[in-house]
Write a structure and sequence with these properties.
The chain is mostly helical and about 110 residues long. It is built from four helices and no strands. Helix 2 runs antiparallel to helix 3. The longest helix is centred in the middle third of the chain and has 26 residues. The N and C termini lie far apart (about 80 Å).
């Protein structure tokens, strides 16, 4: 049961975050007597935490290591091959770019 709950939580991070902050707001409003300023601050914290959850999802989707095991040998070889391809493409682009003329050939400065 614990494993299925953890899987559900990882699939629905916004729902979990929203439920926690809703419970916090209700507790603060009913039990602790929070006013507008306190509730506004909790709402600001909610947006900050939700942004953090979204950034974590983005990091995971582009290959971040927060939820993934270390890369296997084959994966690191693939990354190295991609980096070599990028290096070669940059060399080609650099060779096609025009070099700026030296300062002597530009004429008088004004």
């Amino acid at each position: 049961m614990g494993n299925s709950f953890a899987q559900w939580c990882s699939k629905h991070p916004y729902t979990v975050t929203s439920l926690i902050f809703l419970a916090l707001i209700l507790l603060g409003w009913r039990v602790l007597g929070w006013g507008e300023r306190h509730l506004g601050f909790v709402l600001l914290l909610y947006f900050i935490v939700t942004l953090g959850v979204r950034l974590d999802e983005i990091t995971r989707s582009i290959g971040g290591h927060s939820a993934h095991p270390p890369a296997r040998a084959g994966e690191s070889d693939t990354v190295i091959a991609h980096l070599r391809d990028i290096k070669e493409l940059l060399r080609r682009i650099d060779s096609k770019l025009q070099r700026p003329a030296p300062d002597d050939d530009r004429g008088p400065r004004q």
